[in-house]
């Protein structure tokens, strides 16, 4: 049990993500009251906190086979109860994707925000239907849902860059001094590479299980880079000499996220 616990919780990825969250909390508490109420700053902190929670839960599930077996049997997986892919599907492929879509929505010009709402609705409805009908069970790989998640994030990033090259507000700005540019760029490359890596890993797993497991480290490194950028968003108000003000109004109320 001790070795399982050590392997699950004491590794470079888990420790790094935990440290990023702690630093994020520290700087968030130092923000002025009006910025704390701004979704530009509390949403990245929520994503950081959620990632720590599901990584910790994943470590617990991996160290508690009886619990993992019980959940798998509840979901209908009695043949291979040793995997906790259901947790990855819910937390990483689905909830985290929606949270990132809300984050991208903050950056894009107001006229295009409605498209993000449509994509979120389509994604959630599709994921629920596919899982309830058994097309892509929760306890197995979900290639179609994963592809849909990756593509709507890429399309959302594309909406941001379209606005950057067509809208006067962005044309008058310096992209390299916008935190939104760096966040969207990293999300674009990260989701592209993680999707390609996950597809390749499915086939490689049948050839070399060890190589497929090692390829998962690519996802971890990319995941750390995204979380580091989330932290940078929280810290950005303290870096006025590095980043410029965003061209568009950023919502300060939670209700603005669904508008």
From TrEMBL:
It comes from Algoriphagus winogradskyi. Keywords: Membrane, Transmembrane, Transmembrane helix. The chain crosses the membrane at residues 12-29, 41-61, 85-108, 115-132, 144-165, 186-204, 224-243. It comes from the Bacteria. This is Uncharacterized protein. The lineage of its organism: Bacteria, Pseudomonadati, Bacteroidota, Cytophagia, Cytophagales.
């Amino acid at each position: 049990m001790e070795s399982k616990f050590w392997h699950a919780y004491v590794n470079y990825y888990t420790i790094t993500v935990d440290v990023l969250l702690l630093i994020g909390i520290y700087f968030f508490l130092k923000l002025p009251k009006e910025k704390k109420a701004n979704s530009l700053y509390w949403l990245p902190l929520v994503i950081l906190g959620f990632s720590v929670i599901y990584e910790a839960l994943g470590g617990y599930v991996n160290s508690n086979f009886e619990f993992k077996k019980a959940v798998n049997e509840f979901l209908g997986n009695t043949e291979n109860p040793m995997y906790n892919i259901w947790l990855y599907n819910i937390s990483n492929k689905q909830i985290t994707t929606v949270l990132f879509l809300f984050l991208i929505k903050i950056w894009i010009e107001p006229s295009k925000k409605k498209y993000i709402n449509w994509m979120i609705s389509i994604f959630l409805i599709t994921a629920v239907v596919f899982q309830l009908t058994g097309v892509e069970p929760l306890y197995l790989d979900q290639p179609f849902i994963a592809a849909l998640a990756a593509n709507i994030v890429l399309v959302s990033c594309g909406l941001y860059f379209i606005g950057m090259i067509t809208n006067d507000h962005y044309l008058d700005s310096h992209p390299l001094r916008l935190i939104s540019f760096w966040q969207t760029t990293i999300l674009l490359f990260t989701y592209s590479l993680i999707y390609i890596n996950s597809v390749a890993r499915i086939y490689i797993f049948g050839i070399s299980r060890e190589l497929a497991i090692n390829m998962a480290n690519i996802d971890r490194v990319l995941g750390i880079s995204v979380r580091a950028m989330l932290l940078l968003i929280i810290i950005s108000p303290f870096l006025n000499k590095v980043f410029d003000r965003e061209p568009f109004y950023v919502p300060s109320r939670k209700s603005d996220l669904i508008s």
